[in-house]
Amino acid sequence: MTIVLDGSSGITAPGGTAAAPSITTTGDVNTGIFFPAADTIAFSEGGVEAMRIDSSGNVGIGTVSPGSKFNVSDASTNCTITVTNSSSNFQVQSNTNDGYFNLNGSGNIIFRSGTPSVTERMRIDSSGNLGLGVTPSAWGSGQKALQTPAGAIWNFNNANMTITQNAFSDGTEKYINNGFASKYNQNSGQHVWSTAASGTAGNAISFTTAMTLDASGNLGIGTTAPANRLHVVGASATPSIRIGSSIVLGAYWDIGRENATSGDFLFMNGSTERARITFGGDLGVGTSSPTTGSLSNTATLNAGLFTTLRGTVASTSGVAVTIGTAISSTNVGYIVSCGVASADPANYCAVAVVSADSGVLRVTALQTAVLMSISVSGTSIRATQSSGGSQTLHFNILRIS
């Protein structure tokens, strides 16, 4: 090899090859530096090129055509770059069709970006939990989580999947930050939604189940054991279902139970009651007090469509007895039936239509039986049986207007 030293061009040497590099050390002539092309420096080991810096400033290790500023290639299926310090080593690895980030140590893998200073964007902690924009909380053993500043998606021993807002678990569910918390859980085919009151970061959470969709498809609101396709249980004495409209704001229907004592089923339009079904099965439309069968035969049939009265009363043959008191106003009508317990009901049952016209109560249609008739006297609706002796009358009256 010839080296030329002059005052104008410095030290020059032939370009050389990988097998015969231009600059070598004594006794090792196939290892050194050579110049395979203009503005390109290459390094060889044992007569084989190991690295080069091309005319674009790209560094290639194991490749003669680096496509980026630092390009590492390996002819085998496993190519690894390792960065080592005194306590751990970090590796970027390509293995067949897969890529790996390996940290051999007890620390975290942290991803940062930004300008002029860098900010942490993502972290994988030593337990394998992932934090996006946040350092993962101290999750418990067997729990794997993807956590954000607002909440997390996590599971426990691969048995369930949970999405939480402002909550994590280290074995005990706790608040991530100050404030309210909520939770959605899937487990064994069941979906459960829960809420929690506002609390302090790090304190334990007491979740309350708000809604459950069980594995059979039953949805429970206020109950964890729905028995039907929709099962609603209210926390108060007056639970209800509200149906509203986005077109007419403030217009809605409430359907629900009146209170813990009566158990009447109400239909409300805003704050106004429109209809109810009593716990005893009576229907009142336009009245909050439909007459029930538990009242005496002198009970007044209250205002409202489909108010009903049913019951029994003692009678004597040939004597008219009152079975209900009507409201003798205009445009009110009643359907009345009355009979006695008998082996021959056709002879003991009468049906009548009673109406009020101009304040006068009258029977407008009547189907009489041989031994039973219905009449009116003032505001009283009356029945008479003529079978002889004492009889118990069974009556039903339905207000229809």
Describe this structure in words.
With 401 residues, the protein is mainly beta. It has strands spanning 4-6, 10-12, 23-25, 28-34, 41-45, 48-53, 59-61, 70-72, 78-84, 89-95, 98-104, 109-113, 119-124, 130-132, 143-147, 151-156, 160-165, 167-169, 173-175, 179-187, 190-199, 208-213, 219-221, 230-232, 240-244, 252-257, 265-269, 272-277, 283-285, 308-316, 321-325, 332-340, 350-357, 360-367, 372-377, 380-385, 390-399. An 11-stranded mixed sheet has the order 12-13-14-15-16-17-20-21-22-23-24, with no helix packed on it. It has a 6-stranded mixed sheet with strand order 3-4-5-6-7-8, with no helix packed on it. Strands 25-26-27-28-29 form a 5-stranded antiparallel sheet, with no helix packed on it. It is rod-shaped and about 150 Å long. The N and C termini lie far apart (122 Å). Residues 293-298 have low confidence and may be disordered.
Shape type: rod-shaped
Give the number of domains: 4
* Helix/sheet category: mainly beta
Largest sheet: 11 strands, mixed
Question: How many strand units?
Answer: 37
Give me the oligomer status: single chain
Number of helices: 0
Outline the low-pLDDT stretches: 293-298
**Rg of Cα set:** 46 Å
Strand order of the largest sheet: 12-13-14-15-16-17-20-21-22-23-24
* Beta-strand residue fraction: over 45%
Distance between the termini: 122 Å
Overall pLDDT metric:
83
Helix content: under 10%
